[in-house]
């Protein structure tokens, strides 16, 4: 066991006993000291302020009461095989009854003369108020107890609330030694916040509900301040950044583009192409975010931007987060741009030496107009003759530094125009406040002729039916995806490629084994996960594309890029682990062709969960889904927000807590105006707050 103060990144297993640490990682995805410290309760049980018995039953929800046991009766209800305990209690105002069901052990716990604190729903009857106890606490003799506030944490079947509470209670003092994001005294006083350490203590173990609220206010403000500081820093930086090559669109370009396409542009595509071309015509670098739901046709918009660069004698680079996606973009864009004679090259990490050398030569001598690749494009030996446009797909998968490195490849002191694309829609008002430094284009219209994906939520108990459904479709010639959860998937990113956790790989493999060897033993089943080599991944994908594999078990690596029109069924296991927006994006992998497609979400039989997932049954509008996600879970799930740091919110909800955001933003702007690089020692805690350190790196890079 570690004795010295833990750092935020100290592994949980150096703090908790090994088995416990493994359990917390497996069940909750917590791997570091900071993860545990910031595993916040989502609500509290208020066991303070008991209501006098004569006033019980006036409130809507649960109520508290306290009293002395006058008599107690233990029964067994044989018909329902349940224990029932009934106690009569007396307080200063009179008497009331407390009832427990299904707790046979109370026989040894409750007896006459004990003092009790109880909480539950109250029914009024002729014999006085009766409370159906959900929580109780026996007060020992001489104990000075006037109630407590109990934190309620997200629990799982294998990691119950009681254990989480006990572990956090025990280790909190140690966790509070982690260096925390102290606010400058001035800001703390201005908002009358609890001291930082106090706030973190009180959020887990508040003495009163009012204290919990205060603690939450402090932590939420801190999250917002980090976000707002990041935006303020970026804005300040942008003011200093250089110019760009003006690339104005020739008059006929739109007509020519439309003439060469196999389909008509949607109105939304035409509009955003105009917006992008308008930006590119200016001598300041474009900095635009293109949002569009899965399948809305962003690739074509990227092609139009690249086409303009080519038409004006400049080069474009398109960077995608995975090789699968980069290859697919290359195939699509090369086809779209073929009639215009746009030479395209591919730059990947796993590429033959000869092929790579050729590609780099064509980029350096300007004979290639469009380079498509992964983060391999960022290598020093990738040199462009005249880079005028950088397009970044699924931009949230890249760090700020990586995006900056691409931009740094601009030409003659110019920055390339930058277009970032995301399939995670964010409500517009929100995007404007968060992406203060980006202009926004939205494709809010799908190409005609799409059949909506039919989505159903079901439970693990019904998996046999689900597999039968899959079999039926596969036997009709279709293909299916089975997606397994990606515990801790987003935790680690290396060189822009996601590292999947061991647990995620293990789970995928386990499901694969079960399906391949048992359930679908007679069908070709494949496996795809992030830790396979590029060759293996490509082979699996290619075999699935050729319809040689009929069922593909995959982690969320399928989320980006994969485009197999014949795949019409997707089963997502443990759907409760995903945000709605992410599920929506995942299911966008089916429904690519004209045939009816299906998405089956498998989750525990928990009411709230099926309510939440039910949103996906009812709508296929990505923006509506994103808004619902925001309402339910805050911005933590909107992965399009990762670059702004909003994805790291543990508590803050940009919708519900917007007033606090406004205050944090005003404070951040004032701080950055006075200390643009946060060099003042008073601002040390603020540097820490800067979301995920990303913007801080940007600060360093630009200085
Ligand atoms: P995403 O926005 O998810 O990247 P894609 O660019 O991959 O979407 O487009 C999805 C599919 O829709 C592609 O097969 C593409 O050829 C097709 N598509 C794009 N624009 C149109 C359009 N205007 N009309 C018909 N089909 C289109
Ligand atoms: Mg796409």
Structural commentary:
45% of the residues are buried. Helices cover 38% and strands 19% of the residues. Among the domains are: 12-44 and 154-179; 49-146, Beta Barrel (OB fold (Dihydrolipoamide Acetyltransferase, E2P)); 256-281 and 295-422, Rossmann fold, CATH 3.40.50; 453-619, P-loop containing nucleotide triphosphate hydrolases (Rossmann fold), CATH 3.40.50. It is globular and about 90 Å long. Helix 9 (298-311) crosses helix 10. The model is unreliable at 488-498, 636-645 and 692-703 (pLDDT under 50). It is built from 22 helices and 22 strands. A seven-stranded parallel β-sheet has the order 10-11-9-12-13-8-14, with helices on both faces. Strands 15-22-21-16-20-19 form a six-stranded parallel β-sheet, sandwiched between helices. Strands 2-3-4-6-5 form a five-stranded mixed β-barrel. With 703 residues, the protein is an alpha/beta fold. Magnesium ion binds next to helix 9.
- Which outline best applies? globular
What's the CATH class of one domain, please?
Alpha Beta
Largest sheet: 7 strands, parallel
Name given to the CATH architecture of one domain? 3-Layer(aba) Sandwich
The H-level CATH homologous superfamily of one domain, spelled out, is P-loop containing nucleotide triphosphate hydrolases
Question: If you compute it from the alpha carbons, what radius of gyration comes out, rounded to the nearest whole angstrom?
Answer: 29 Å
CATH topology of one domain: Rossmann fold
Q: How far from one another are the termini?
A: 41 Å
| Discrete helix count | 22
Q: Assess the beta-strand content as a share of residues.
A: 15-25%
The level of helicity is 25-40%
| Overall pLDDT metric | 85
Annotation, overall tally of beta strands: 22
Question: Major sheet: order of its strands?
Answer: 10-11-9-12-13-8-14
- Ligand species: adenosine-5'-diphosphate, magnesium ion
Computed structural class: alpha/beta
Report the uncertain regions. Answer: 488-498, 636-645, 692-703
